[in-house]
Write a structure and sequence with these properties.
The protein has 114 residues and is an alpha+beta fold. 21% of the residues lie in helices and 32% in strands. The strands form three sheets. A three-stranded antiparallel beta sheet has the order 1-4-8. Strands 3-6-5 form a three-stranded antiparallel beta sheet. The radius of gyration is 13 Å and the shape is globular.
Length: 114
């Protein structure tokens, strides 16, 4: 199993839990797909796109549950990033945990190997 990750606000995730599906954050809706990161891309994604935000959750997703709607495409620095061209069914979610800021302003990633 390969796990990919999505950083979301707590409000976005509460809406997804209420609806039973995550349709995407505003940037996802604008781009036409849901942005994910691999474990090795996560710290840079948090720093670049979520700097200073303290109301975040890290959502772990089993990529096998997403089927052919998930593709890896060239993005930041030529790296391949997972993009989902569909809504995220919550059945594919492994866990969601707080993504707190440390005293130094850097997000503290939870243990991801589970």
């Amino acid at each position: 199993m390969v796990t990919i990750y999505k950083i979301v606000t707590q409000a976005e995730w509460r809406e997804a839990e209420r609806d039973g599906v995550f349709r995407g954050a505003p940037v996802d809706l604008a781009d036409g797909f849901i942005h994910f990161s691999t474990a090795s891309q996560l710290a840079e994604t948090a720093a670049k796109h979520f700097a200073g935000q303290d109301d975040l959750l890290l959502v772990a997703v089993d990529e096998d549950a997403l089927g052919t709607a998930l593709t890896y495409e060239v993005s930041r620095g030529g790296a391949l990033f997972p993009h989902l061209y569909a809504d995220l069914p919550l059945a594919g979610v492994l866990w969601a945990e707080p993504l707190p800021l440390g005293a130094d302003g850097v997000h503290r990633l939870p243990v991801m190997d589970r």
